[in-house]
Amino acid sequence: MSGGLALVVVLAFVLLINNVPIWAALVFACIPYFIINDVPLSIIPTQMSTGTVASFILLAFPLFTLAGRLMNTGGVTKRIFDFADTVVGWIPGGLGHVNVFASMIFAGMSGSAVADIGGLGLIEIQGMKEKGYDLDFSAAITIASSTIGPIIPPSAPMVLFAVMANESVGRLFLGGVLPGTLMGVSLMVMVYFYSLRRNYPVSARPTAAGFFRALGLVCLPMLNPLIILSGMVGGVFTPTEAAAVAVAYAFVLGKFVYRELTWRQALEDLKETTKFCGAVYVIVGAALIFSTVLTRERVGDSLIELVQSYSLGATALMFTLMAIVFIMGCFVEVTAMFFLLVPVFVPLIEAMDISKVFFGVVFTIVAVYGILTPPFGLGLFMVSSMTGLSFNRVVRATIPFLIPLIISVLALIVFPGIVTFLPDLLMK
Question: Which of 184, 241, 291, 360 could form a disulfide bond with 237, CB atoms 3.0-4.6 angstroms apart?
């Protein structure tokens, strides 16, 4: 590491631990480097307003985010919870399974872990509390199941990865289907063993009439991911157009079909999406400045040489990189992590001939786990606020659920075909 790069890293670290916003920390840490190396400071506004930030595909990110919010406030979440209760609520573990299964369904509409916790999580925790489930368990499974949100398509984080790695959004979306399902099944296995010791209540087995009645309530929302994926795979529309279709579909569903979405709420959803995505875009621009430093310092080439000198294979390299992502996830916000690590890692995986679809899906999964790892896991703080439980108590309850989630990632790294099977089958 050169002295200039070391200066940037140290300055960024000092600024971040002093609670300077991450975009400002990255930009201000890079300014001394540019001055020392006679790089015109005009590169800062240029980089922050062109290139990736201005990408047409990146428009899919705010659109998918808005679609998730509209689904959340348009009356979809309660219907999903009731349907999940009908389908799996009778299995030992009861509403714990319902929590996971509902998150798997909602993942196909929101593409966001935060949206899952903020909307579906409220209903899940309240429902479990009323049925006699202890609050610690309810909080833990709600946080853990929310990580499925950005994995089963659509996925806002995968759009970011696609733009940065120049990969197909459709292939990434398809690549997330089986891993997201694997995560859900692994969590349900954990819930089952918990229930054997705690004897949680279960719902009655559904009748055929009851099942189809519940299915009728969610069949329209469940069409959303099918419309998105089939349209993208069939070449009917681009990822950005697919996101726009998702917004229109969510709005029509909430406003005119379920009649629970008001104009005031729709405007509030639009405002909150704008604020959230505005913050993300500023981080995107700042990360591009940081990436300029990394490119000038040939960090990617240096990593390739280092890996080759140790003769690491693809599997060993994936384990190493995902360990780095997991540790960083304890301290860095998910979106910021994409723009800090993807520009460094992508040249390395290309040199090692690792599928970018495989890497992108696994990277997204491990990065999202950051919402449930202390000390800065956003999901931990959200659920602590919802339930009134202390942060430390939520952490203690949640940590065991990392076990099945980590096992899922290990299985994906060892068997990459789980990720690549559907993209290779459906998109050439």
Answer: 241
Q: Residues 59, 163: contact at Cβ < 8 Å?
A: no
Q: Which of 5, 18, 26 is nearest to 284 (CA)?
A: 26
- Domain assignment present for 95: yes
How high does pLDDT run on average in the chain? 87
Q: Look at the alpha carbons of 94, 99, 102, 108 in this order and tell me if their dihedral is positive or negative.
A: negative
Q: Is 26 inside any structural domain?
A: no
Residue 133's closest CA among 89, 76, 87?
89
**pLDDT digits 0-9 by tens, 321-376:** 999 999 988 877 787 788 778 888 998 999 899 999 999 999 999 999 999 998 87
Q: Give 264's DSSP letter.
A: H
Domain count, the chain: 1
* Whole-number Å distance between alpha carbons of 408 and 428: 26
89: closest CA among 98, 79, 102? 98
> What tokens were used for 343?
């520009």
* 3 within a domain of the structure (yes/no): no
* pTM for this prediction: 0.87
Q: In this structure, is residue 353 part of a structural domain? A: yes
Find, among 14, 234, 195, the residue nearest to 93 by Cα. 195
